[in-house]
Amino acid sequence: MNSNAKCDSNMSALAVLTCRPNSHPFQERHVSLHEPAKIGRSVARARPAPNNSIFDCKVLSRNHALIWYEEGRFFLQDTKSSNGTFVNSQRLSKGSEESPPREIMSGDVIQFGVDVMENSRRVTHSCIIASLQLFYPDGREAKPSGDGGTFSPTIGTNIYSQELYQLSQYLQEALHREQMLENKLATLQRLVQGTQEASEQGWQALVDEDRLLSRLEVLENQLQAYAKNQTKDNLKTELLALQDDKLNYENSAKESLRKVLQEKLDAVTKLSGIEHSLSNTEDECEHLRKICETSQNELEELATKHKESLNEVEEFKQQLSQAELSHKNDSEKIEKEKEELEMKIEEMQKEESSLLAKIESLQADNDFTKNQLTSIKARLESMKESEAEGSLDNDTIINTDMITKDSTVKLKELEEQIEYYKVQVRESNNRLNESSEKIEMSQNQLDQAQMDAVQHITKIASLEGDVAKLEAELLDTKRMLELQRSDAKSGAIFEVRQFDSDETINNDTDSSDSVNELSAISDNGGGEKGAAGKYIEEIQKLKGELLDAKRQVQLAKDEYNTMKAEHETLNMEYEIKVSQQQVDMKILQDKLQEAQQSAKQSNNEAEQLKSKLQTLQDDVNQLQHCSKLSQGSTIENSKGDLALLKEECANLRKRIQAIEGENKQLMNKYKALEELKAQLEGNESTWQVNLTDAQKDADKTKKQLSDATEQISSLKDRCSQYTEEINYVTSHLRETQEELNNLALRSKSIAAFSMVPLFILFFAIVMAFYPALSEITATSSM
User: Which segments of the protein form a coiled coil according to its record (predicted)?
Assistant: First the structure.
């Protein structure tokens, strides 16, 4: 086939359609694809041929589909067909709608139309199902690539339509089987009626023949009796012999009547047992019918649940899109905040530049004060303007006091801010600890869900094994029932024929044997029914276990969904907390930078104050040196001024030492805050790792739950198959019971008709010996 395909494909691409076993029969087709090939029903202008894709099938449309080759790919399109086109059990379009082109590959299974049944003639028309082989123009086969083709976005709807299509096929098959069974029942009823009529006619002919023979025998005996001239001794001997025969016949008749009554009682008891078993089977059938109805309701519920799940998937998609939009909005907000922070940084830089300008102005003031001090030196030298110089020194000291007061106020504000930030950091640590505890709880719950899923999978595997065992046992019971049914039919036919060949008393024993055999067969049928009942009970138990497994899986799903929601909420809370902490850390960093800048400014101011103090001390030393040379009156004033200056210098030194201690404390606090920041960053990385692990575990549990749902659906399909087989077995049991009842009626009629010749013979004997008896008893009319 491949060589022919390669020879034909030298000019163009080639498609080979091979018939499958469940398809409408057709020859293998080799279709050249140098132009689009039409697929349709046979008409007068287009007849089926090995080199086209026209089929003699009634379920196809005239223009059903198109197949063509274009740009290195093969395509199939449904052209508004009534019964649809399927590729790997997936319909290309809805009813009477044109489908988009679907890419096909070698090895795909293509189905044109569906099986259709005519109600008038009770005939099913099969569809076209073919396995496809495609060859490129260079002779290579168009095998599917490793990626498995494109994934359709509407796979959920395709799967749902595929399930509906399979359900419709199952329903059609069930209707077809039901119609076949009805036809078989009708033919069996006709055969039974024909056999009953033939048996009645045969019995009537036998009865008429026996009557005529008995009448002839009676007449012959009367003739012989009248023809003989017998003596009294002969008559006495004959009477004694006749009396003995009479007694023997009476005894035999009593025994035969007793046997017949016993057989009748046995048949009645067996019939009551069979009726009881029939009522039990009817109850079982009603129970199975209820189970079938419940299973159908479950299927409908599953279909509704599937629709709901599809709606949930769409809702989740919408939520994802909304989340993406919110993420975009958040990213935009973050960018805006970043820009605002950059603007703030620029403003801080401007403030820093302004502070530098202030520092320069302060340096200028310092220079100015130096100039003033030089002028003070000049004034001290003159010693005439000492009072003015003292007033100027007081002004400078007041200015230094104001500067130190401002620095202490700033330091207090910085300490308050740092304490506030410490409180915020502690609160954030507590929140992070709570979130970590919640994450650990969610991880433990996920582990428990995984263990439950594994247990459900093991239970499902054990249930599959039990179902396989029950399937094998059901097959064995089917075979045994069919064998017993065939044996019962053959035994009944053989007994009827044997009864037709026999003549008189032996019929009683044959009928009793047939009744015993029928009772044994019925007992066997009852045993088989008991076994079938056991199997049904086991199947019901398995169904109950399956329902329990379903409930447990549903509970696991609900737990997983709740855990997933909690996990998502924890993630959101964690992200919010992390973002808040990041913002707080940024604020803390900014404030720490401000504190550092203020500390630097205070250090600079302290250094400036130190330099001023040194200059003042130099001035004081000079003044002391000058005062020694000056007069006594000026010495007293200068000593007072020097004492005041010394006190102010001591106070300034103390303030400088306090400022340095506060700066050291601020540096230590800054280092502690940096360590806290590093710890928070490490905790953030560990929590991110834990979150990724939890997400992986959640994905694993999702996969396990999906596998469990698939296994449960397969078990449901098997249970539906087993229920169909059980219905089939119960129908066979009903047929065998009906046949047993018919055979019991036949045995009763055979027993009744077998007694008729005995009564006729007894009557003939009585009539033959009636004259002699009348003479003996002296009741004859002389």
Answer: 171-252, 278-379, 411-487, 532-725
- Of 545, 531, 537, the closest CA to residue 464 belongs to 545
Span 416-435, pLDDT tens digits: 766 666 676 677 667 666 66
Mean pLDDT, to the nearest integer, of 269-287? 78
Please report where in the chains the tokens 């075979």 appear, as a residue: 479
Handedness of CA 502, 505, 506, 510 (dihedral sign): positive
What is the pLDDT at residue 511? 42
**Rounded-to-10 torsion of CA 185, 191, 194, 195:** -120
Q: How many CB atoms lie within 10 A of CB 351?
A: 12
E runs forming strands in 197-294: none
Give DSSP secondary structure letters for 564-596. Answer: HHHHHHHHHHHHHHHHHHHHHHHHHHHHHHHHH
CA–CA separation, 125 and 112 (whole Å): 12
Full strand arrangement of the beta sheet holding 85-87: 29-32, 14-19, 128-135, 109-112, 85-87, 90-91
Q: How far is C-alpha 406 from the chain's CA centre? A: 74
Q: What is the pLDDT of residue 127?
A: 92
Q: Which helix (H) or strand (E) holds 513?
A: helix 506-629
From 748, 135, 715, select the one nearest 499 (Cα to Cα).
Answer: 748
Q: Which two tokens stand for residue 387?
A: 């009072």
Name the token pair of 119.
């109600």
Residue-level pLDDT at 215: 82
Q: How far apart are the first and last CA of the chain?
A: 109
CA 18 to chain centre: 35
Query: Hey, which of 49-58, 92-101, 367-376, 657-666 has the most confident mean pLDDT?
Result: 49-58
Q: Judge whether 724 and 539 are in contact, CB under 8 Å.
A: no
The phi and psi torsions of 103 (rounded to 5 degrees) equal: -75, 135
Per-residue pLDDT of 700-756, as tens digits, reads 777 777 777 787 777 777 777 777 877 787 777 788 778 778 877 777 777 777 777
Query: CA–CA separation, 477 vs 528, rounded Å?
Result: 7
Q: Which amino acid is at 461?
A: A
- Closest CA relative to residue 210, chosen from 222, 221, 218, 220: 218
Q: How far apart are CA 63 and CA 37, in angstroms?
A: 11
Most confident of 246-255, 496-505, 745-754: 246-255
What is the β-pairing status of strands 37-41 and 53-55? Answer: parallel
Q: Which residues are CB-contacts of 130 (< 8 A; sequence separation ≥ 6)?
A: 17, 18, 19, 20, 23, 26, 29, 109, 110, 111
Secondary structure string (H, E, C) spanning 405-466: HHHHHHHHHHHHHHHHHHHHHHHHHHHHHHHHHHHHHHHHHHHHHHHHHHHHHHHHHHHHHH
* CA within 13 Å, CB half, 585: 17
Which residue reads 């009944």 in tokens? 492
**In sequence order, what are the residues at sequence separation of 6 or more whose Cβ sits closer than 8 angstroms to the Cβ of residue 433?**
none
Find the mean pLDDT for residues 611-620. 68
Q: 457, exposed or middle or buried, with CB in 10 Å at 0-12, 13-18, 19+?
A: middle
Exposure string over 75-93, b if 16+ CB within 10 A, otherwise e:
bbbbbebebbbbbeebbbb
| Backbone phi and psi for residue 155, each to the nearest 5 degrees, phi listed first | -70, -30
Q: Which two tokens stand for residue 342?
A: 């950059």
Spatial contact of 651 and 397, defined as CB atoms under 8 Å apart: no
Strand partners, 134: 15
Cβ(114)–Cβ(59) under 8 Å? yes
* The total number of residues written for the chain in this structure: 782
C-alpha–C-alpha distance, residues 638 and 353, integer Å: 43
pLDDT at 515: 41
Please state, in angstroms and rounded to a whole number, the distance separating the CA atoms of residues 355 and 530: 104
Q: In angstroms, rounded to a whole number, what is the distance separating the alpha carbons of residues 266 and 514? A: 13
CA distance linking residue 702 with residue 694, whole number of Å: 12
